[in-house]
Structures are given as structure tokens and as C-alpha cells.
# Entry
Amino acid sequence: NLTARIARAAGPRKGVTVVEIGPGPGGLTRALLAEGAARVVAVERDERCLAALAEIAARYPGRLEIVAGDALAVALAPYLGKGPARIVANLPYNVGTELFVRWMTPPEWPPWWDSLTLMFQREVAERIVAHPGTGAYGRLSVLAQWRARPRIAFEINPAAFTPPPKVTSAVVQVAPAESMAEADPKVLEKVVAAAFAQRRKMLRQSLKSRFTDPLGLLAAAGIDPVRRAETLSIPEFLALARAAMAAGAG
# Structure
């Protein structure tokens, strides 16, 4: 029931290629195919799972492509085809946030995917959707909400898993925004990482870890240097990134 609910949360699947990261033995993969995904590209690095995935592929001829490899290293473009593509995954914790940041910061936008439906630990999901001035607001919040509209679709009780984990999970849905302010994604990522690395410190201090003239950048962006990262809105972070780019500090 849970895997079917996640598959349905991804929206209409007719004519859609679904990219699944870390399918394991294929519980969610089966649900995606059963719920009507035209094609699933499953990226799995654990060789022990490949035989189970091959059995699923045999049951759904021509609809499941198994890519053996590390999702951080696999180039997905050759597998995507011409139609819309969506990412649906129960992301492994150790690579989940890194993959998410990559999906949110490609050099060109709109991205190659038209939606993300991802299961995270609840605390990670809360960071993705957090607003300024809250304890959960941070790097993931800014990078996710700059060019997209994330929301928590539903939470998942630990009892849904065997064995039950010690944490609650949540499914996050992300769709690209129709309009956005411009900034270089790599520069923005650098600014945000520096600002939140020492989130209790004033920006004039925390930005020193990555920039030689933080006071100049803050002045150019019109931001009071005694403020802290968690008080900045996303437009203010974008202004700071543009100032860094203009100063050649990106």
C-alpha cells in the first residue's frame, strides 16, 4: 500500500519515464510499473539486488531498464528518451542530500526532470520546506525554494517498515517554478554553504570562510552585516550571490 501511494503521488504516469534511484529489490519499482509508468530507469549500485530487478523486468517486458552503478556517477541522459521524465525514489541517507542539491542546481533551468517525488527522513524533508527565521531553515531550504516549489506530501510511520527504523520518514514533492530570479547556481551554493556553516555567527564573520571581502559583498547586496543566515530571505541570498559574481568572488 505504501509503495503504491508513493507511486500515485508522482502524478499521471502515462507516457512518462520514471527514474528511480536505489530501488533495492524493487518494491517501489513494482508499484511504479503496476500503477502505469510507461518506463522505469532504475539505478542500483548493489549487485545483490540486480537479480530481483531482472525478474521484475521480465514480468514487464520493455518497461524496466536496469542501470548498474552509483547514482552519483551515472550519466542519465542516454536513458531518458524524448518524453517527460520524473524522479521517484526512496533516497539512501548517505547520498540523498547530495543528489538533491545536484538536481536543484543544474546550470540550465528548467531541468531535465519535471517533478521529484522523494522519501527522506522527516528532519531532512522539514529542512527542504522550511521558511526563514525557523530552526530548520538552511542550505537545503534556499536551494530547493529558489527555483522550485517543494512540499511535504505525507509522512510515513516507522511501523510501515520491517524492521521499523527509529525515525519518521516523509515524502517530498518538488515541481520547477514557473518564474524565478536569476543567479549562478554554483555561486549561490557557495554563498549559502558559507552562510550556514556557522549559522550562529553574524554574516560578516561566517562568510569569511569562503570570501575575502564579506563586508563589501554584504554592502553591495544591501544586507546588514550583523544579521545571521537564518534571517535572510531567498531574494536576499540571490542578491548576495549576484554581488559575489559581480565582484569576481564566485
